[in-house]
Every structure is written in C-alpha cells, then in structure tokens.
Amino acid sequence: MGSSWRTALDKEFMKPYFQKLKEFLIAEHLTHTVYPKLNDVYSWSRLTPLDSVKAVILGQDPYHNVGQAHGLSFSVLPPTKLPGSLRNIYKQLSSDIPTFKVPTSGDLTPLAKAGVLWLNTCLTVRAHNANSHSKKGWETFTDAVIRAVLDRPDGRGVVFFAWGLPAQKLYDRLGIDEKKHLVLRSPHPSPLSAHRGFLGNAHFKKANEWLRKTHGEEIDWVALNSVPPSEAVRHI
C-alpha cells in the first residue's frame, strides 16, 4: 500500500473486521484463484497518493476473468479487450473532451497518476464468481478510504462520480458535503444501463469545469492518449 494511504488507514488494519477479512482471504487463496493478484490489490493507493486525489470513480467488484483486474476500477491491462463499461466511459470522454481519442488499451494507469482514484468497493474476487468477496469486510475498509479523502488535512473538495444506484447510496450514506465536493450522479456505464442516462451525462466536462472554478486545475483526461501502455504497465 502507498505510504500516504497506509498512514491514513493505519487504525483500520487492527480492527476485528479487517482481521476476519484477512483470515477469509488467506483461506480463499489456499483453495481458489483470486483476482487481482496480491501485489495489485492496492495498486490504486500507489498510483494515486491521498493528497493527489482530484476525483473518485467508484466501481463495485473487480473483473473476475483471467487477465482483467489489476487493482483499478473499470481498468484492464493489454492485451485484454475493452469491457463494455469501459467502452462507454471512453465514448463519453470523447464526447466531453474534444482532444480525447479513444485508446485501444483499457489501462487507466495514466489517469490514476493524474489524480483519479479508481476504487472498487470490494478489492478482491474469486475467479469467475462475481461478488464472491462482497460482505466480507472490504466495504467497511473502502468506506474508510473515502472518509480519508473527505477528511484530508488540506480540506480540498473533490469530484465524486456516482454511477449507478450502489455508488449513489454509498455516497448518500457517507453524508458527503455537496457544498464542498461535487457529486455527479447518473446510471452506470454498463451496456445494460448506459443508454438510460450515462451516455450524454457530460460528467467529465462538468468535473473539469468545477475543478477549474474551485481549484484552478483540471484532470488531464487526454493523459490516456500520451502514455504508451508498456510504460504504464511498468509503473504498476
């Protein structure tokens, strides 16, 4: 885990729920294949230090097939084909950001390094078994991750992308102060729901407009076009 996050989350590691989660994961690794691989579970924390977070994009569960999950929500490493949700994210990006060109790679590492926290509410999954590690403790831990963003000493507001009802309910439950932070709500980018309001939501444009107005900065979404996938992979 990246040092800034380890410091912020230090108290979580000794809590009973986290000890039970560790025991569960040890047992799972003895009997099943688990994704992502161990050294990628916290890759989000190394790529996006706590003080660099400009936006949080929340997913639910890591991809559960071979060669997909690597610790960032919605992201896959080459040569894996783009999942449907990510294709729709790219569609909306190309609509919102005129200079954005849809990449062939699904590796979102460059955006993680640009301040986008790609966080799943569950950080592991059993191979080929979606949601198999839900309600084992990860949700409590990732709540603490989001609270760490909300409680940063610098007090800077961030953009929270709330795609789909689970993300929206989580943010509502945490009581995010929308006078300080921007919460962007829409349906999920999944092919099952994207045409009900994700496509056309202008979230990436709205995020940059708010960041410019509030902090005089923006997210370099075009970073995906400028970093070769091979270079991105080396930094994970």
UniProtKB/TrEMBL annotation:
<keyword id="KW-0234">DNA repair</keyword>
<dbReference type="GO" id="GO:0097510">
    <property type="term" value="P:base-excision repair, AP site formation via deaminated base removal"/>
</dbReference>
<dbReference type="Pfam" id="PF03167">
    <property type="entry name" value="UDG"/>
</dbReference>
<protein>
    <recommendedName>
        <fullName>Uracil-DNA glycosylase</fullName>
        <ecNumber>3.2.2.27</ecNumber>
    </recommendedName>
</protein>
<dbReference type="GO" id="GO:0004844">
    <property type="term" value="F:uracil DNA N-glycosylase activity"/>
</dbReference>
<dbReference type="GO" id="GO:0005739">
    <property type="term" value="C:mitochondrion"/>
</dbReference>
<feature type="active site" description="Proton acceptor">
    <location>
        <position position="61"/>
    </location>
</feature>
<dbReference type="GO" id="GO:0005634">
    <property type="term" value="C:nucleus"/>
</dbReference>
<dbReference type="InterPro" id="IPR036895">
    <property type="entry name" value="Uracil-DNA_glycosylase-like_sf"/>
</dbReference>
<keyword id="KW-0378">Hydrolase</keyword>
<dbReference type="InterPro" id="IPR018085">
    <property type="entry name" value="Ura-DNA_Glyclase_AS"/>
</dbReference>
<feature type="domain" description="Uracil-DNA glycosylase-like">
    <location>
        <begin position="46"/>
        <end position="211"/>
    </location>
</feature>
<dbReference type="InterPro" id="IPR005122">
    <property type="entry name" value="Uracil-DNA_glycosylase-like"/>
</dbReference>
<keyword id="KW-0539">Nucleus</keyword>
<dbReference type="InterPro" id="IPR002043">
    <property type="entry name" value="UDG_fam1"/>
</dbReference>
<comment type="function">
    <text>Excises uracil residues from the DNA which can arise as a result of misincorporation of dUMP residues by DNA polymerase or due to deamination of cytosine.</text>
</comment>
<keyword id="KW-0227">DNA damage</keyword>
<keyword id="KW-0496">Mitochondrion</keyword>
<comment type="similarity">
    <text>Belongs to the uracil-DNA glycosylase (UDG) superfamily. UNG family.</text>
</comment>
